[in-house]
Amino acid sequence: MIKNDFFILIPARKGSKGFPYKNRKLFRYTSEIIPAEYKKYTFVSTDDEIIASEAKENNINVIRRPEDLAQDETSMKDVVKHFISEKNVTKNIILLYLTYPQRTWNDVEKIYGIFSEIEEESLVCCEDVGEHPYLSFHNLENNKASLLVDHKLYRRQDYPDCLKLSMFVSCYTTNVIDNLHDLMFEGDTYFHKLENHKIDVDYLDQFKQSQNNKQDL
Questions:
Q1: Backbone Cα Rg of the chain
Q2: Residues forming beta bridges with residue 166, ordered by sequence position
Q3: CB neighbours (10 Å) of residue 207?
Q4: How far apart are CA 51 and CA 9, in angstroms?
Q5: Facing residues of 130 across strands?
Q6: Of 3 and 80, which is predicted with more confidence?
Q7: 23 Cβ partners below 8 Å, 6+ apart?
Q8: Which residue among 15, 143, 153, 175 is least enclosed by CB atoms within 10 Å?
Q9: What pTM does this model have?
């Protein structure tokens, strides 16, 4: 891995409704996998003093996130733009969500290696969907429903192949950030397919499950 062509950004705001103070509990699972020689290239964007203190103890840089960028509706795109602006970033960015406690440094190296070889400005991970969206419905009032995707196909073999977005590891050039969708991809994004499902922790039971399931790429 080339040490001088990227920064690592870890978003870690204080608030979380489904799993209170989730990022405080998850922070060490990401901070501990980063080798010492890479921590000077690593930044945590946070409004949480406890996370900020833990980051400093682990020799990780802290970006103080303003309150207006730490809301439920704040987009990750705006958080990344704030980081770029604050540190005048021109290098590539490896974005590591804290919600993947099973991730290893080998995972990060492997995926960034792929990004370094392709001729695209953004990479996100993906995996197979568990249930095809053509079988999903909007839940309406009075026990009514409507198709999530309007179609007339009844044979499953006629359904198009679908992928599920995963932010297990994502990589970007600074040039592409303004063009990203709020879900952190754009028209030319490279989708790296994971070999196994990676638990994305939103709730306490998912966190417990992640501790019992160690999976590889």
A1: 18
A2: 125
A3: 18
A4: 14
A5: none
A6: 80
A7: 12, 13, 14, 16, 46, 48, 51, 98
A8: 143
A9: 0.90
Fold topology of 6-129+162-211: Spore Coat Polysaccharide Biosynthesis Protein SpsA; Chain A (3.90.550)
**Nearest 5°: CA angle at 65, between 79 and 80?**
15
Strand ranges inside 61-134, DSSP E = 61-64, 92-95, 122-128
The letter for the amino acid at 88 is N
- For the stretch 100-146, pLDDT in tens is 999 999 999 999 999 999 989 999 999 999 889 999 999 999 999 99
Chain position carrying tokens 């073999």: 157
pLDDT digits (tens, 9 = 90+) for 155-182: 999 999 999 999 999 999 999 999 999 9
- Please give the backbone phi and psi of residue 107, each rounded to the nearest 5 degrees, phi first: -60, -45
Distance between CA 20 and CA 16 in Å, rounded? 5
Secondary structure element (H or E) that encloses residue 166, with its range: strand 163-172
What's the one-letter identity of residue 137? F
Q: What pLDDT, on a 0 to 100 scale, did the predictor assign at position 215?
A: 47
| Distance in angstroms (rounded) separating the CA atoms of residues 103 and 101 | 6
Residues near 46 by beta carbon (within 8 Å), at least 6 away in sequence: 11, 12, 13, 14, 23, 52, 55, 62, 63, 64, 65
| Phi, psi angle pair for 10, to nearest 5° | -115, 110
Q: Does residue 20 surpass a pLDDT of 80?
A: no
